[in-house]
Fold this sequence. Notes:
Layout: H1 2-11, H2 14-30, H3 39-51, E1 55-60, E2 64-71, E3 76-82, E4 101-102, E5 105-106, H4 113-128, E6 136-143, H5 151-157, H6 160-163, E7 169-179, E8 183-185, E9 188-191, E10 193-202, E11 206-207, H7 217-235, E12 242-251, E13 257-258, E14 261-270, H8 273-293, E15 301-308, E16 311-313, H9 315-329, E17 333-335, H10 347-352, E18 356-364, H11 366-375, H12 378-381, H13 397-413
Helix pairs in contact: 1-13, 2-4, 2-13, 4-13, 7-8, 9-13
Amino acid sequence: MANMSAASAVLHRLAEIRSWQEDLYRDLHQHPELSHHEHRTARLVADRLRATGYDVHERIGGTGVVGILRNGSGGSVLLRADMDALPVQEATDLPYASSARSGDVPVMHACGHDVHVTCLLGAASLLAEATKDWSGTLIALFQPAEETGDGARGMVEDGLADLLPPVDVALAQHVFPIPAGRVVTHPGPILAAADSIRITVYGRGAHGSMPQSGVDPVVLAAMIVLRLQTIVSREVAATDTVVLTVGAIHAGSKSNVISDRAVLEVNLRTYDDGVRETVLAAIRRVVTAECQASNSAKEPDFELYDRFPPTVNDETVTARVGDAFTGFFGERHGPIGAGAASEDFSDLPRALGAPYTFWGIGGIDERLYREAVDSGRVAQDIPVNHSPTFAPVIQPTLDTGTQALVVAALAWLAT
């Protein structure tokens, strides 16, 4: 296959860049930055892209960076990496562990975005040094604020489309808690849409000894929690997947005081836009009805925030990338099921009118993973994304992520 020959030609220099990639990864891991504050990371990215010949655009959507490399006629491929970290106190004991803080908040790359940035910079460098082996336009996009769900949208609203040529395909990857060296793909829905809802319900304050004088919002909130669960069990078809979680309830200040309000923090995960809207409407209906049943002092308030789109991989694009992965990785490429985590990557190709696919790479030491499988302790022994002990092994994670981006891009760009 032409793209396998091109991939071998481009990737023959991988050993030469391995040293600076590993150093860069450790540096990024030690210096994580929260969403919308990725200033240092963005500078490092822009400097390296510019040094390898890319036309660089900075501060797109705040701290986003876009590098464009035009190399003759052919397709236009967008590769995306996210840059932001999380407000998590690292507990890995690594020599390059983060001790960074944002004010009083600890900061950690607990989701592997430092891996994503490093791999994309490596792929961009290799492709820039091997322009005789491919033709077309490569777009390396480094996105801020994935964790808050508004980074991709911010880049779009800041005029991203005006900077780019028409995009034929958009590609992205994420490090998963599976054995390092593995690459996994899935056609169709792979990640869920997510909606967080802050619901404030109102009671009437009173003394704890005189409940007849008040309307207790704690009891009202408890009734809402129970009733919300029936939406999934009784209003959603068994073939549709919905997760509805009440993650927090805030009410009251003292045992003998009936508060005048309660706040519920609700999270919803769905894969289908129609189901999503149906369940959101049902949540509003149930909460409003329970407030009326409790003689609430006024109508409840609803605030939607941290909204993520579903990630639905184009089947044709996924098949093309999957074939390229099988040709290069062999048995290290395989399928993976849909997950209930969420991403905002799809906001980019949707706005640009491009089909897309999103895949996973492994980051867990294979020996440790197999030991956990054999002992039946995967859930206990393997740290997952957002854990304070999530720490992808440097190799073969970086090599695999770099290879995957190059191989996928060349499925469109190979001459």
